[in-house]
């Protein structure tokens, strides 16, 4: 199976390169640093490094408290952080600057993996969440590099999608020394996929340990002062195609009851910024944009957050948050950021990527599920109208967030033991 998989990867390489070039032409920075995707890059002496792989922005954010703990506990070990997307790369730079060495993860081709591992020479490999690359895993195993999946999650849909490759993935997972799962459900799914049950533990979700940035705590009130303390403000974060129109239609309903209401909308992917701008203008909203206007004025009805890595201050400045990827079958995004700031959360029916966290918030009274996009406006209106209920939901969201903290400490104990061995 692995030989067949590798042959298919080689056959797909020209298509992958063409896709990389095409995306680079359309979105700019996808064609930059392309040799890194084949394991070709310059690096300082990284012998004995600790390597953390986080595919994109969400995984980098989740890994932030763990990376900071690693820097503190192992100050002499070089830290290598890899991503797959340019937005993930930008987030690494924003969070850590030059204190870590960043490079793109190479494609899962044997020669690329060989070059990559020869360059970074890690003493420990930490894969964040759900990234199973057979040649990479076998390459670590052959070199005796301990491999650990941290904050491991596996949705039911992913488990079903892996079915045709289960034999290959089972053998890849046998190269892993430890799987620290987010929840009991995730742990059970990894065992069903073929992981050694003795190597699977439940450590909790690292995202509960993420720090609340002072910039958010200080920036939120400053934003409100600029655009008006008393006006109702809600945010639609990490939206996808098929959701922005529903959000804008919901805001039309809100404006009928609250004419001075402000919607903050933050598309998940930068390539959608212009499309969303066009949709907002075509519906006749008065709008401002983060990249041009910096902050909205009193007359603006919609504010497009067309930058990356700035959501927390805007969550702090909002009365409530809708978290996207959930009205369409994407699986939802991180509900913990607004919860950490004691903001009530609305989600759609599709939250399988954050299933247990979302359910915990709903059961704890900190979140509500909107079953249909047509009902979003009604839910937003209800919460904007009822200040007491909104405050209570935000308080309960923060209680749930605080009760789940401690995953970083549990994962660090596993890492310490593995490095001692």
TrEMBL record:
<dbReference type="GO" id="GO:0009244">
    <property type="term" value="P:lipopolysaccharide core region biosynthetic process"/>
</dbReference>
<protein>
    <recommendedName>
        <fullName>3-deoxy-D-manno-octulosonic acid transferase</fullName>
        <ecNumber>2.4.99.12</ecNumber>
    </recommendedName>
</protein>
<dbReference type="InterPro" id="IPR038107">
    <property type="entry name" value="Glycos_transf_N_sf"/>
</dbReference>
<comment type="function">
    <text>Involved in lipopolysaccharide (LPS) biosynthesis. Catalyzes the transfer of 3-deoxy-D-manno-octulosonate (Kdo) residue(s) from CMP-Kdo to lipid IV(A), the tetraacyldisaccharide-1,4'-bisphosphate precursor of lipid A.</text>
</comment>
<feature type="site" description="Transition state stabilizer">
    <location>
        <position position="129"/>
    </location>
</feature>
<feature type="domain" description="3-deoxy-D-manno-octulosonic-acid transferase N-terminal">
    <location>
        <begin position="32"/>
        <end position="210"/>
    </location>
</feature>
<dbReference type="Pfam" id="PF04413">
    <property type="entry name" value="Glycos_transf_N"/>
</dbReference>
<keyword id="KW-1003">Cell membrane</keyword>
<keyword id="KW-0448">Lipopolysaccharide biosynthesis</keyword>
<comment type="pathway">
    <text>Bacterial outer membrane biogenesis; LPS core biosynthesis.</text>
</comment>
<dbReference type="GO" id="GO:0043842">
    <property type="term" value="F:Kdo transferase activity"/>
</dbReference>
<keyword id="KW-0808">Transferase</keyword>
<feature type="active site" description="Proton acceptor">
    <location>
        <position position="59"/>
    </location>
</feature>
<keyword id="KW-0812">Transmembrane</keyword>
<dbReference type="InterPro" id="IPR007507">
    <property type="entry name" value="Glycos_transf_N"/>
</dbReference>
<dbReference type="InterPro" id="IPR039901">
    <property type="entry name" value="Kdotransferase"/>
</dbReference>
<keyword id="KW-0472">Membrane</keyword>
<feature type="site" description="Transition state stabilizer">
    <location>
        <position position="207"/>
    </location>
</feature>
<comment type="similarity">
    <text>Belongs to the glycosyltransferase group 1 family. Glycosyltransferase 30 subfamily.</text>
</comment>
<dbReference type="GO" id="GO:0009245">
    <property type="term" value="P:lipid A biosynthetic process"/>
</dbReference>
<keyword id="KW-0735">Signal-anchor</keyword>
<dbReference type="GO" id="GO:0005886">
    <property type="term" value="C:plasma membrane"/>
</dbReference>
């Amino acid at each position: 199976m692995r030989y067949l998989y590798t042959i298919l990867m080689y056959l797909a390489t020209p298509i992958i390169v063409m896709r990389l070039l095409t995306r680079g032409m359309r979105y700019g920075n996808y064609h930059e640093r392309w040799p890194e995707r084949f394991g070709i890059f310059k690096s300082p002496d990284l012998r004995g490094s600790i390597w953390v792989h986080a595919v994109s922005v969400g995984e980098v954010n989740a890994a932030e408290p763990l990376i900071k703990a690693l820097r503190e506990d192992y100050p002499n070990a070089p830290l290598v952080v890899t991503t797959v997307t340019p937005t993930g790369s930008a987030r690494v730079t924003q969070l850590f600057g030059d204190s870590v060495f960043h490079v793109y993860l190479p494609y899962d081709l044997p020669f690329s993996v060989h070059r990559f591992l020869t360059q970074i020479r890690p003493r420990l490999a930490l894969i964040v969440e759900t990234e199973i690359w057979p040649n990479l895993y076998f390459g670590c195993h052959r070199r005796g590099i301990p491999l650990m999946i941290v904050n491991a999650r596996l949705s039911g849909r992913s488990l079903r999608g892996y079915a045709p490759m289960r034999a290959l993935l089972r053998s890849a997972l046998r190269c892993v020394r430890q799987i620290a799962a987010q929840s009991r459900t995730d742990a059970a799914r990894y065992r069903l996929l073929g992981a050694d049950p003795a190597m699977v533990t439940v450590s909790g979700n690292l995202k509960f340990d993420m720090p609340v940035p002072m910039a958010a705590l200080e920036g939120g009130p400053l934003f409100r002062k600029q655009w008006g303390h008393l006006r109702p403000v809600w945010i639609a974060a990490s939206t996808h195609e098929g959701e922005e129109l529903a959000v804008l239609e919901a805001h039309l309903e809100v404006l009928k009851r609250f004419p001075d209401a402000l919607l903050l909308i933050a598309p998940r992917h930068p390539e959608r910024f212009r499309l969303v701008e066009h949709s907002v203008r075509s519906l006749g909203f008065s709008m401002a944009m983060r990249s041009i206007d910096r902050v909205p004025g009193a007359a603006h009805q919609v504010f497009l957050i067309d930058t990356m890595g700035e959501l927390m201050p805007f969550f702090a400045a909002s009365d409530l948050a809708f978290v996207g990827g959930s009205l369409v079958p994407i699986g939802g995004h991180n509900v913990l950021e607004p919860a950490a700031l004691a903001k009530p959360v609305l989600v759609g029916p599709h939250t399988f990527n954050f299933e247990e966290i979302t359910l915990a918030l709903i059961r704890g009274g900190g979140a509500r599920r909107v079953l249909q996009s047509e009902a979003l406006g009604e839910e937003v209106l209800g919460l904007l109208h009822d200040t007491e209920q909104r405050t209570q939901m935000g308080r309960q969201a923060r209680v749930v967030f605080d009760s789940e903290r401690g995953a970083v400490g549990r994962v660090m104990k596993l890492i310490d033991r593995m490095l001692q061995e």
